[in-house]
């Protein structure tokens, strides 16, 4: 590449080839994620100390997990690799375009999604740059997630639609995921954004089950109902709910009936949730589970202590004067007595909290702390208390786009139940970014001859491309096979090999290749470099292959799948072993690659 740069400077080249080892880009990607993660930890510490708001931290967290930018990935690599020549590599010069050879996509491992994200933006920014990507098939068989991880593809369906641009899925697909959606034109898109909406009905919100809430709700006048706007400071908004106060005595009686029916344990006590009925009527957006909502003070009326005492006195007097037992209203008297007891308990607890706050204010060491305590005390002295609700359940809605930064796509043709499939990395490259489909290319006789001479040196100086016509093309038409073919010719001698019958030569070459590959596999997988350890590993590999070969021969099978390779497969696809080259993308009935 450096020679190409020099040639370009002299005006002798119109195309500048730039080989980009994607393993190096993956290394930079991991560094970027580590740096961002450290920043997030610092922000978490600041949030704990209340130096920043929850909103600031949430934005940083979302950026790290869902929308981290890798726009600088290539430039950072170029600066490291080419130093002062980097500007020539990073942008096109006048009269010259670049050919990016993105080499070893499968070797970028967990950073494949980050590289896809960079590439998606890069080819849009530089449309004249030609791009060639090389990979083993295993590099294209997964899906890339916004977190940088890769995994097997999943499918789901549309659960709900909300407006023209938003839909909820039965399974959570992350932002940045490329998907194929039934009914969408064109069907391929990217999940652009998410919006958390409160679940409708009684499942979205619940009252916080605390002693303060319970005591306050127990003194509210029953049967009151209000429609309220639900807001969270620095978070969710736009939601509405109907809130109704239930009668304490009826809630208590219903509880006893459920205990007798065995629906709840006998030791279950009346809670805040039994005294308030909440129904979400409008979903809103940007909500999160356990977000806290405080309903306004005095939204509901409470019992008046003096009125309850006067009414209780009146009922008691009437019951005492009544001559006939049936004329006595014991239920009303008991109910009023219960209300009076709850009022006393609530007011006593409130007075205790005020006294405690006064003590803390008096003992505050700084003026700022005293002012904060005083504001808290003033707030507590106001009539009534706030009712605290928690977000119990949210529905995740997502929007689609052609790019992560593009406009929302209209979902007019998508119905509930429509199928949504995650796209393989291969499909993303071909259908979204316009790459031609992945091909396993063969080499011609002249290239194979050069490889053979490079491997064996002067021993094969007299090898001509025409000599290869004597041998079956599958012995040399791939780089790995040409390399092994050269080793065979070097071992046997060119003259001796040229005299072999074609069928005999093919058998001998494959036998030689098998021995070389098995020895190489044994050396790679052995625990140490001791000859006996390598020999034991060779025996183990040979036994496994022999047993499986006999089994396949008895069944009349010729193709091997990854399950047949057992412990060899994972090392092979990662490039640690050169046991085989892929012959295609076919799969058997069990979905195993062959």
Can you give a write-up of this model?
This protein is α+β, with helices and mostly antiparallel strands. 44% of the residues lie in helices and 16% in strands. It has helices spanning 2-9, 22-48, 54-65, 73-82, 86-90, 112-125, 211-217, 248-260, 305-321, 330-362, 367-381, 425-432, 445-456, 479-492, 494-498, 502-525, 531-555, 562-565, 567-573, and strands spanning 15-21, 97-103, 130-133, 143-144, 150-151, 155-162, 166-169, 178-181, 188-198, 205-207, 225-230, 237-245, 276-285, 292-295, 387-391, 394-401, 419-422. Strand 6 and strand 7 (166-169) form a beta hairpin. Helix 2 (22-48) runs antiparallel to helix 3, helix 2 crosses helix 4 (73-82) and helix 10 (330-362) runs antiparallel to helix 11. The longest helix is centred in the middle third of the chain and has 33 residues, at 330-362. The model is unreliable at 573-594 (pLDDT under 50).
Q: What keyword list fits this structure?
A:
single chain; 594 residues; alpha+beta; six-stranded antiparallel β-barrel; three-stranded parallel beta sheet; 19 helices; 17 strands; elongated
Strand order of the largest sheet: 6-7-16-9-8-17
Number of helices: 19
Residue fraction in strands: 15-25%
Oligomer: single chain
- Low-confidence stretches at least 5 residues in length (pLDDT < 50)? 573-594
Average pLDDT rating = 81
What is the number of E strands? Answer: 17
Backbone shape: elongated
Structural class call reads alpha+beta
Distance between the termini: 36 Å
User: Mind describing the biggest β-sheet?
Assistant: 6 strands, antiparallel, barrel
Provide the helix percentage.
40-55%
Computed Rg: 37 Å
